Amino acid sequence: MKNDLLNGLVVTGTLVTQNFLVTAAYTFIANLGSVLVRKSKGYSEEMLQGVFNRKVTTVWMLRDNAEIESPIEEVDIDDVIVIHTGELVPLDGVITKGTITVDQHMLTGESVPVEKGVGDQVFASTVVIAGYAWVKVTETGQNTAVAKIENVLQSTSHFMTGLQLTGEKWADAAAAPILGLGVFLAPLQCLGVGTAVFNTSPGNGIRMSASAQTLVHIILASHESILIKDGRVLEQLMGVDTIVFDKTGTLTEEWIV
């Protein structure tokens, strides 16, 4: 017995008592909340994934020392592809010939382009600023570094914070007493009274308000170019007293604390 059972009883009770307007209004409001949450999630995913929205559909593959344009889906591991100035690196790989300058700040945070030569690794979705190279493919599809990051971002808007989990747990725990009270009052008063009691469950409000509130913060952060890996960290933010940076190149502005 959980909150969803009470929702079904509210709809059933209003239909049986022929309060069709109440049925329509309740159903509309309940579904509107769900639609708004889904739209917020979709918008959040779009904002977060927009960091890597530049995609490559075709690549130059090396066949018998000739460059052949092919769909990226046809590239396999150990194939050799050719990248030129101004192009995106299509897949993860290792340079086997040539030297290039790569802008990979969107992936690594490095503000300064880096020089890469034979034996160096390159990553999909980074930009070749200058040079020409042959790259032996090491990862394709969902195994590339950028694809793994995108998978993390996709799951960001499907989290449930600790506060939301606690709220829904309480709402589900309250379902049985509310159900019992409604069933008890229905024959003593009327079915409408029992239905009204079923409608007192806080589950819908907790579910919608908690998820929507946290998603709004994620969207606001994304407008400031801040990517939140997991919304649950927002609850722990007040307890943070130290920030650790893995390299000085990440710091593009001076921060005074």
Automatic annotation (TrEMBL):
PANTHER family: CADMIUM/ZINC-TRANSPORTING ATPASE HMA2-RELATED, CADMIUM_ZINC-TRANSPORTING ATPASE HMA4-RELATED. Its main location: membrane. Residues 57-153 form the P-type ATPase A domain. Keywords: Membrane, Transmembrane, Transmembrane helix. It catalyses: Zn(2+)(in) + ATP + H2O = Zn(2+)(out) + ADP + phosphate + H(+). It comes from the Bacteria. Its EC number is 7.2.2.12. The chain crosses the membrane at residues 20-37. This is P-type Zn(2+) transporter. Belongs to the cation transport ATPase (P-type) (TC 3.A.3) family. Type IB subfamily. The keyword Nucleotide-binding does not apply. It is found in: Membrane. SUPFAM superfamilies: Calcium ATPase, transduction domain A.
